[in-house]
Amino acid sequence: MNSPLNTSVIELRSRALALLCESDAAHKVEQTRELYAQWLAQGVQLDASATLQPHAALPGRPARPPLVPPREVGKRAMHTVEGRAALIHALAHIEFNAINLALDAVWRFSAMPREFYGDWLQVAAEEALHFSLLDAHLRTLGFAYGDFNAHNSLWEMAQKTANDMTARMALVPRTLEARGLDATPAVRAKLAQVGDHEAAAILDIILRDEVGHVAIGNRWYHWLCARDGKDPVALYADLSIRFKAPQLRGPFNLDARRAAGFSDEEIAVLEASGS
What we know:
The protein is an all-alpha fold. The chain has helices spanning 12-21, 25-40, 81-108, 114-140, 153-160, 165-193, 197-228, 232-242, 254-259, 264-274, and strands at residues 10-11, 44-45.
């Protein structure tokens, strides 16, 4: 006689999709970190070949913050508490989007090695930690996530690359998220200068982890290029044009980019194009 179906088994990609659809920010953060802990404890199964379909709009997000064009987000005066809070809010929104981006990579792309899914689940869990740290600090300033306008540029690139995994690896972690490696040291210095050392310490954690996240993007971009017999430098230039990626401009955090796996050739092309 067949044993009854165990309905308590968690399947990684379907669970990642469910979390991506989750609109409650606190629940998304908590459950994403819990899923990664379960994965590390080998309590999660993986069906890499499954074809999944979302049953809700992607991504799940709370009703606030309002999403506006980037130029309408507003400037942030660092010498006021509200201005500092607006900056922390913008960083928290980036991290919230980054949770969604990593969860999207887990569920969307099938037939990849097991390590691919573990890598992007790790990224999702670490982005969830970053969001929780920034959100908690924002509350000490008298504000909460959703109190300021935000823009949707990160997720828009995810939508454009939804059907091209190589483009996703090239243009989200290696382009948009890598911009954070360049920008974070200057932002950290400004926060420290106005005496917000707690926020500066959070950015130290974020920069450390983001080097690893960009490295994961580099790893899988180069893996896909090798699989498909593509030159990674030439293909990157083509994908940037085809998907209308933002042109990168210096100054670049070359030490962080090298630590994240950018080759000397890629660094040279980056400097030549971004000068």
